[in-house]
């Protein structure tokens, strides 16, 4: 006690102690947040730096690293728009200068900016809230997209950083403390040039931010000028005439836009089926229908004794500034969301599937085929069912969106207030207008992708342009418009006070700075319209020189307008920011003033390249790419949070409107009460208590005046000219007073409205853009995370932690996550293949038990939540669920990020990669470096690589000074380049050339070099989607598809999805097998047994195995054996590494058989496939890559066949009928074309059609071969539709044979066809079933004749073809695996002979490397097409006499050719040669 008294008795001690306690308390209160951000910063650095150099450089990364290294090492760099902005290259070169050049240092620049992005919400704390900013930082930290691409040397992370910097500068300039600090203008300028110097997506940011700020500014201007509002209780309200005129002008503009939009959409969607007049007539009629009733609404209402109309309603709405801004933003965001929905749906259910056009043929045309020179009428078909599906898919989600908007309004308006129908109608009208405009723009700019073509940029490729004709009219129009603008700007600056009025708004300053700095970059538009090639700026060629000269002329008016506007605005502020912007631009784009062309390639080429590339659609990604693949797979947490933020934002809008309606109603009641007093005294606006209003609403209440005397408005001053209040400087104190006193005052820039607008609009913009790539998803992720962080912060801030300690409240914290996990398990098990209650098999019972257990857990958790949570209150419980869901989703997101960035980072199983280098790149590199080190040759060791393997090897081989480089197509390899090479690395095009030149002196291995993500999401259709989600138990594959999709999402495991694809192909056989049952019970049993067998057969499907990835390019590595033997100590001398024990019977009967003749490359064939011989011995070769049929005699082309006006497109198959008519399988024109022996087009039939969608008799998908039956029937291998179609010679369908599957009588990729010369049976090379299937002349399946045919993987370049020897005893097939041989089978399917050429390097003769078409001549000689790239040739073998042998007895592998039947082995004797000469060299 004495101590206590002593403490309190000392007058100074308590003061110091209290101050210390307060400081410690404040420090503690602040430090938990500071500690949290410190932990986030440390984790951001750790996650982005750990193993940074491990992942192999992707194709695009290696471009950036190599040219950055050239800048660092030699000071060489020239900006090219193909590789985006120069800032990345300069900063990476700086990193090399500071820390050295390697994979780790190459990625430091995006790493550092990626860390800065994670911390950026701290700067937005004022707008996001304390917890909201913290949640946003956490989500930025764990975002899979941002984590992966922060460790990836691309321009996207820098662009996002500078966009955030610019946004922060805008916010601080407009609403900072104090406002309008000049330093923030410089920040805006630096952010702007940082974006433009990084990537062209900056133009999307500029358009989005600029449009939002323009709307905000316009409403602020309206607010400054002042619009007369209706007084409380005033029923007959009419705005002044000038304001009414403005209302009519706005109405005119809106009606025009709506008419143009609806007219364009009607013509786009209805013109295929209905006759419509010209666009002018359609849009003009719509304009009158829309505008006349609205414009005349005022007259109509006046005739009815009322006042007002549409124009008056517009001005009345604008008078309530803040409400107008909120409702317009709501309508715009809802409209953009609906537009995104429509764009996604019509990319799945395409309009051309509703309206189909068919050619109308006469009876004569039907018999003779379509004449390419004749025009035909077309008939339009209408699929009502598909239209209903389209309308349903669009209508139901749209109604759901509108219902959410309506429900939110109803929920926030109490029963005492009417539903705000006017507000809802306004939101709906704006949404329709915005959605229509956006959909019309998307349809106008949309370029249909014909096929998914993997793409990898090549900066060394030359740009091509359609023509060199220029129309400079747009440039001179720009000059004229620019001159007018400059004159108007100068006149208004010096002769009026307009600029003083405009300068009152800080947001106007921002618009001027952004607009004037960006305006010169828009010079690309007139140049593009004038026809200049904006991808070619090479001054050494005429086209590039023309573009540069035109650019200097065209940019002048844009620069003049920028300078005039900037100086007229505020020259003291504009000149410094323009100087900084221009200095940074010139420094980087000209490479420190060493490349003057960079001024043009930067200011003009950046946007110009984007304009040129919009129709290219690199990668051909669908419009739903981001919505259905990127965001759901990686960024599901921000998407869910953003949706919550949207609903919460709607609540804020309707609460504000509710409060304003309540205030207006109370004001009206106050006026009525005052009128009822009858003492002639009016209420005082200065006394808020007299009216029952709050002080914030007093500006709405004015003294009543006689009707004929308009009441003065507090914000309106009668003036002649511009009133003084509108030109006086901006006063922050006055602004603060307005914000405090007037609820409808548009005050601070609505940050969350800006972020919401940013999020939906950039998603829409990038979905419409021609190039859609995974890295662009980062631009979508950031605004979604800011929205989600704000919402989760609001949810968390409403929690009452103390309540959890009362009445077992803590149990809710346990029950909620358990319940959510249980619910997820219940849903997932219903989704997948192993559904509960599916049967009595052990696995079915296990699935049922697991599901019931999950359901029990969920119900138990739900009970605890309901029981305990009732004491917590609904609001507290909802917030707990939100926080728990956020935590669980954050954990899942972290798992996804770890998988993508640290486990699967080099594999195409992740959708984050595109044109990504495979891990084998570094495997090969490390081996090469080891060879160089062990041989002491070091960097001087000779290596050779080609243009296919150049990226990323140009980067990785940068230190090897003695290198050779191969460029060009197959057949262009110079042997001298390979001299002395220790290692050669080439792609597939030149592998054959290199293999031929190097021979046996080098070991050869191949690896996957480049791969792309699985592309099964391409070409989605209604049928494909319906098939996946089909609830029918008869659709065996659907549940496996669903489980496969979940496995892909959860663990990037594609095996179940591959199994589903296999099941879909094979399950059709089960119905045929079920028909064997005599009773329905037997049929059901057979069907069930078949389905179980199909599921089991398909369980090991390897089509998406990593080593067998379907979308990949390979590289071939050749290592000098002499040096490899020393380094590797292999101990195998000069033997080849390809030696292995025979595995198949085909290996045991292999022999080297010399050719009697070889028609070598002089024939000029390119990628030939099939071959056929006529009675005179002429060879007809499907010269596939040359798009023709070549006729050869004695190895020389004597004739080519193919219509010039309707050319062939990669024909694969050819057959010659007895009457010498030539039948061609025109593969990628999806048709059969018939020519006379002289090459005259006789007839044709066929069109592109998939069997599931097109039942017409002439539908094909990539037919690969054609054969002529003994009765003249034409057999066509309809490869893609997995069937063979039989026609009369005139093209009339007789029957279809086969169908998708692996059962008897089913086919999977049928290619080669052969007709037995005596029985007429048809033999089919059934590729993916790896067999030869046999059908009789009536199309009935006999048996699978051979069961070991075809490639082991689907990577094979070629396809198997067939031929039957003239005696009809052997079936010859081209075996496509790594043996590259021809195999002869007996009719019972036993291998009798497999053979190839003997290798003779001295004579320059190699084996047949890519056997394709086969044909026998009348003398029994076998013609074999070798389709090896760059070495195409025809190899002719003599007639082979293959005798019968004792069963099971064959010559030992490696023994020579036997002339007699020793040991009962097959006798192989070339009839033209015998004895020792038989092993001689082949004739070239």
Walkthrough of the structure:
The chain is built from 46 helices and 35 strands. α9 (144-150) packs parallel to α36 (874-903) and α34 (810-831) packs across α36 (874-903). The strands form nine sheets. A six-stranded mixed beta sheet has the order 3-7-8-6-4-5, with helices on both faces. Strands 9-32-31-30-29 form a five-stranded mixed beta sheet. A four-stranded antiparallel beta sheet has the order 10-35-34-33, with no helix packed on it. It has 1484 residues and is of the alpha+beta class. Helices cover 49% and strands 12% of the residues. A hairpin with a 4-residue loop joins β16 (1222-1226) and β17 (1231-1235). It is globular and about 120 Å long. The termini are far apart.
List keywords for this structure.
alpha+beta, disordered N terminus, 12% strand, 6-stranded mixed beta sheet, 1484 residues
Give a short summary of the structure.
The protein is α+β, with helices and mostly antiparallel strands.
The helicity comes to 40-55%
Low-confidence stretches: 1-14, 449-453, 461-467, 679-720, 1129-1142, 1351-1355, 1444-1484
Task: Describe the sheet with the most strands.
Answer: 6 strands, mixed
Structural class: alpha+beta
> How many E-type strands?
35
* Quaternary: single chain
Strand content: 5-15%
Count helical runs.
46
Mean pLDDT: 82
Shape: globular
Distance between the termini: 118 Å
Radius of gyration: 38 Å
- Strand arrangement in the largest pleated sheet: 3-7-8-6-4-5
């Amino acid at each position: 006690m004495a101590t206590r008294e002593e403490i309190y008795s000392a007058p100074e001690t308590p003061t110091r102690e209290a101050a210390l306690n307060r400081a410690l308390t404040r420090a503690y209160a602040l430090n938990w947040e500071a500690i949290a951000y410190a932990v986030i910063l440390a984790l951001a650095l750790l996650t982005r730096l750990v193993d940074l150099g491990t992942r192999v450089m992707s194709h695009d990364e290696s471009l950036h690293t190599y040219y950055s290294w050239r800048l660092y090492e030699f000071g060489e760099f020239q900006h090219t728009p193909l590789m985006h902005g120069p800032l990345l290259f300069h900063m990476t070169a700086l990193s090399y200068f500071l820390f050295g050049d390697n994979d780790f240092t190459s990625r430091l620049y995006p790493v550092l900016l990626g860390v800065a992005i994670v911390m950026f919400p701290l700067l937005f704390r004022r707008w996001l809230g304390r917890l909201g900013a913290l949640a946003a930082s956490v989500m930025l930290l764990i975002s899979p997209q941002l984590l992966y691409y922060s460790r990836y040397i691309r321009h996207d992370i820098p662009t996002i950083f500078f966009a955030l910097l610019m946004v922060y500068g805008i916010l601080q300039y407009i609403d900072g403390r104090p406002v309008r600090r000049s330093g923030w203008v410089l920040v805006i300028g630096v952010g702007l040039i940082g974006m433009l110097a990084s990537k062209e997506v900056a133009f999307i940011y500029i358009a989005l931010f600029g449009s939002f700020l323009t709307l905000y500014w316009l409403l602020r201007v309206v607010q400054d000028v002042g619009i007369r509002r209706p007084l409380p209780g005033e029923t007959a309200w009419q705005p002044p005439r000038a304001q009414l005129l403005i209302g009519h002008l706005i109405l005119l503009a809106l009606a025009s836009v709506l008419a143009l939009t609806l007219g364009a959409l009607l013509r786009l969607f209805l013109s295929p089926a209905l006759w419509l007049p010209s666009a002018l007539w359609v849009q003009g009629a719509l304009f009158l229908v829309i505008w006349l009733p609205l414009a005349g609404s005022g007259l109509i209402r006046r005739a009815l004794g009322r006042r007002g109309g549409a124009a008056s309603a517009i001005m009345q709405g604008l008078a309530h500034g803040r409400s107008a801004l909120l409702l317009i933003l709501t309508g715009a965001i809802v409209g953009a969301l609906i537009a995104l929905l429509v764009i996604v749906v019509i990319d799945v259910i395409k309009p051309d599937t509703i309206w189909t056009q068919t050619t109308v043929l006469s009876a004569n045309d039907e018999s003779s085929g379509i004449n390419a020179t004749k025009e035909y009428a077309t008939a339009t078909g209408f699929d009502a069912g598909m239209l209903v599906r389209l309308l349903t898919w669009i209508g139901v989600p749209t109604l759901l969106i509108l219902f959410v908007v309506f429900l939110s309004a109803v929920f926030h308006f109490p029963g005492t207030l009417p539903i705000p129908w006017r507000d809802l109608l306004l939101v709906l009208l704006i949404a329709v207008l915005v959605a229509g405009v956006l959909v019309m723009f998307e349809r106008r700019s949309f370029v249909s992708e014909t096929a998914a073509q993997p793409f990898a940029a090549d900066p060394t490729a030359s740009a091509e342009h359609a023509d060199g004709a220029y129309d400079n009219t747009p440039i001179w129009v720009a000059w004229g418009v620019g001159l007018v603008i400059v004159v108007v700007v100068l006149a208004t600056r010096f002769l009026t006070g307009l600029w003083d009025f405009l300068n009152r708004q800080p947001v106007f300053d921002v618009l001027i700075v952004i607009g004037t700095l960006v305006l010169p970059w828009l010079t690309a538009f007139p140049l593009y319209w004038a026809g200049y090639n904006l991808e070619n700026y090479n001054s050494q060629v005429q086209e590039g020189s023309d573009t540069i000269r035109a650019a200097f002329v065209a940019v002048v008016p844009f620069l003049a307008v920028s300078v005039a506007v900037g100086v007229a605005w505020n020259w003291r502020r504009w000149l410094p920011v323009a100087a900084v912007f221009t200095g940074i631009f010139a420094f980087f784009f000209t490479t420190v003033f060493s490349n003057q062309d960079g001024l043009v390639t930067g200011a003009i080429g950046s946007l110009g390249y984007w304009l040129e590339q919009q129709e290219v659609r690199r990668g051909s990604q669908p419009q739903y790419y981001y919505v259905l693949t990127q965001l759901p797979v990686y960024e599901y947490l921000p998407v869910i949070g953003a949706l919550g933020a949207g609903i919460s934002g709607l609540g804020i809008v309707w609460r504000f409107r509710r409060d304003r309606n309540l205030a207006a109603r109370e004001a009206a009641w106050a006026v009525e009460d005052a009128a009822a007093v009858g003492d002639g005294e009016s209420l005082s606006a200065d006394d808020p208590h007299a009216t029952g209003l709050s002080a914030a609403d007093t500006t709405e209440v004015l003294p009543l005046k006689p009707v004929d005397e308009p009441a003065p408005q507090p914000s309106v001053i009668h003036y002649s000219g511009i009133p003084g209040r509108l030109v006086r400087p901006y006063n922050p104190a006055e602004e603060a007073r307005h914000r405090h006193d007037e609820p409808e005052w548009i005050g601070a820039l609505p940050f969350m409205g800006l972020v919401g607008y940013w999020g939906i609009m950039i998603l829409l913009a990038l979905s419409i853009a021609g190039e859609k790539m995974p890295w662009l998803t980062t631009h979508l992720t950031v605004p979604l995370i800011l929205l989600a962080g704000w919402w989760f912060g609001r949810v968390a801030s409403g929690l009452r932690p103390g309540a959890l300690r009362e009445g077992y409240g803590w149990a809710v914290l346990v029950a909620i996550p358990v319940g959510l996990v249980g619910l997820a398990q219940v849903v997932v098990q219903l989704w997948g293949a192993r559904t509960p209650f599916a049967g009595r098999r052990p696995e079915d019972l296990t699935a049922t038990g697991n599901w019931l257990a999950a359901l029990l857990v969920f119900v138990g958790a739900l009970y605890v939540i309901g029981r305990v949570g009732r004491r917590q209150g609904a609001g507290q419980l909802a917030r707990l669920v939100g926080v728990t869901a956020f935590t669980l989703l954050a954990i899942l997101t972290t798992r996804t990020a770890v998988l993508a960035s640290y486990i699967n980072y080099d594999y195409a199983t992740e959708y984050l990669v595109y044109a990504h280098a495979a891990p084998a790149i570094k495997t090969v590199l490390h081996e090469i470096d080891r060879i160089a080190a062990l041989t002491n040759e070091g960097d001087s060791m000779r290596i050779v690589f080609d243009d296919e393997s150049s990226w990323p090897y140009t980067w990785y081989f940068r230190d090897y000074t003695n290198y050779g480089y191969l460029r060009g197509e197959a057949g262009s390899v110079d042997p001298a380049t390979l001299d002395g090479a220790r290692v050669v690395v080439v792609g597939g095009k030149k592998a054959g050339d290199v293999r031929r030149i190097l021979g046996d002196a080098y070991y050869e291995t191949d690896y996957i070099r480049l791969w792309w993500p699985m592309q099964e999401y391409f070409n989605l259709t209604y049928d494909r989607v319906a098939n996946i989600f089909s609830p029918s138990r008869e659709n065996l594959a659907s549940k496996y598809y669903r489980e496969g999709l979940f496995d892909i999402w959860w663990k990037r495991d594609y095996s179940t999805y591959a199994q589903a694809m296999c099941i879909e192909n094979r399950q059709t056989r089960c119905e045929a097998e079920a028909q064997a049952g005599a009773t329905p019970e037997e049929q059901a049993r057979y069907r069930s047994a078949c389905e179980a067998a199909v599921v089991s057969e398909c369980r090991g499907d390897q089509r998406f195995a990593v080593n067998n990835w379907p979308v990949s390019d390979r590289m071939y590595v050749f290592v000098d054996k002499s040096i490899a033997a020393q380094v590797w100590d292999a101990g195998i001398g000069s033997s080849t590494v390809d030696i292995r024990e025979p595995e198949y019977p085909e290996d045991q009967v292999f022999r080297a058989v010399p050719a009697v003749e070889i028609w070598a490359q002089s024939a000029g064939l390119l990628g030939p496939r099939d071959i056929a011989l006529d009675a005179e011995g002429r060879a007809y070769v499907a010269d596939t890559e040359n798009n023709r049929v070549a006729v050869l005699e004695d190895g020389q082309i004597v004739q080519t066949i193919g219509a010039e006006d309707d050319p062939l497109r990669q024909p694969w198959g050819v057959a010659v009928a007895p009457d010498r008519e030539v039948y061609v399988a025109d593969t990628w024109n999806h048709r059969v074309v018939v020519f006379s022996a002289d090459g005259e087009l006789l007839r044709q039939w066929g069109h592109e059609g998939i069997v599931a969608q097109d039942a017409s008799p002439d539908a094909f998908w990539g037919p690969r071969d054609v054969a002529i039956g003994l009765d003249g029937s034409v057999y066509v291998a309809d490869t893609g539709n997995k069937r063979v179609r039989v026609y009369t010679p005139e093209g009339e369908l007789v029957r279809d044979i086969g169908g998708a599957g692996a059962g008897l009588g089913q086919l999977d990729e049928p290619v080669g066809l052969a007709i037995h010369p005596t029985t007429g049976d048809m033999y089919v090379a059934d590729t993916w079933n790896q067999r030869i299937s046999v059908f009789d002349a009536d199309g009935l399946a006999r048996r699978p004749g051979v069961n070991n045919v075809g490639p082991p993987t689907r990577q094979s370049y070629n396809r198997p073809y067939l031929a039957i020897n003239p005696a009809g005893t052997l079936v010859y097939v081209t075996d496509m695996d790594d043996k590259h041989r021809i195999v002869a089978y007996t009719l019972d399917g036993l291998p009798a002979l497999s053979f190839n050429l003997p290798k003779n390097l001295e004579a320059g003769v190699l084996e047949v490397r890519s056997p394709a078409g086969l044909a026998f001549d009348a003398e029994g000689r076998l013609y074999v097409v070798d389709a090896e790239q760059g070495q195409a040739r025809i190899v002719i073998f003599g007639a082979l006499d293959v005798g019968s042998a004792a069963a099971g007895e064959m010559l030992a592998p490696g023994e020579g050719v036997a002339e007699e039947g020793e040991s009962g082995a097959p006798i192989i004797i070339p009839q033209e040669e015998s004895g020792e000469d038989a092993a001689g060299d082949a004739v070239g």
